[in-house]
């Protein structure tokens, strides 16, 4: 889920082909989560803070890796940040929201696999 959004942001999936800043990406994703999973305003704020911190750290790490020419571990870095973010989100979301979030992640993974020709 975040992997797709991170990749999209890194590829320039923002408005008019520009990269989304970590702030823009966190805001868009937190708003999406609030709508999809019924987050309260307090949960939205906490979710935004987690997504922003993760997005900034991930972006910085990926830029360092690109600058050093080390592109081999990028997927692992993205996965690591996703896992860290999920741990924090699980504390913020209630049980029902977390179950919906997990289902949403699975559906997105299936969709990505189908687009790549991998199917389910």
Q: What gyration radius follows from the Cα positions, in whole Å?
A: 15 Å
Beta-strand portion reads under 5%
Please report the distance between the alpha carbons of the first and last residues: 16 Å
What kind of assembly state do the chains in view correspond to? single chain
What is the number of helical segments per DSSP (H or I, 4+ residues)?
5
Tally of separate domains: 1
Structural class: mainly alpha
Strand element count: 0
The profile of the biggest β sheet is: none
What integer is the average pLDDT? 85
What is the molecular shape? Answer: globular
Order of helices and strands: HHHHH
Helix content: over 70%
Poorly predicted regions are 6-15
Structure in words:
The structure is a single chain. By secondary structure, the chain is mostly helical. It has one domain. Helices cover 78% and strands 0% of the residues. It is built from five helices and no strands. The longest helix has 28 residues, at 41-68. The chain is globular and about 40 Å long.
Give me the secondary-structure topology.
Elements: H1 2-11, H2 22-37, H3 41-68, H4 74-92, H5 95-115
Helix pairs in contact: 2-3, 3-4
Keywords summarizing the entry:
about 120 residues; mainly alpha; about 80% helix
Quick take:
By secondary structure, the chain is mostly helical.
């Amino acid at each position: 889920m975040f992997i797709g959004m991170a990749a999209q942001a890194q590829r320039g999936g923002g408005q008019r082909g520009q990269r989304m800043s970590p702030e823009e990406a966190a805001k868009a994703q937190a708003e999406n989560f609030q709508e999809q999973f019924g987050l309260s305003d307090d949960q939205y704020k906490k979710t935004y803070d987690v997504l922003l911190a993760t997005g900034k750290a991930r972006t910085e790490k990926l830029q360092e890796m690109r600058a050093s020419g080390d592109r081999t571990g990028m997927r692992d870095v993205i996965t690591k940040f996703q896992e860290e973010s999920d741990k924090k989100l699980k504390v913020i979301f209630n049980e029902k929201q977390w179950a919906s979030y997990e289902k949403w992640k699975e559906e997105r993974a299936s969709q990505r696999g189908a687009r790549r020709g991998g199917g389910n």
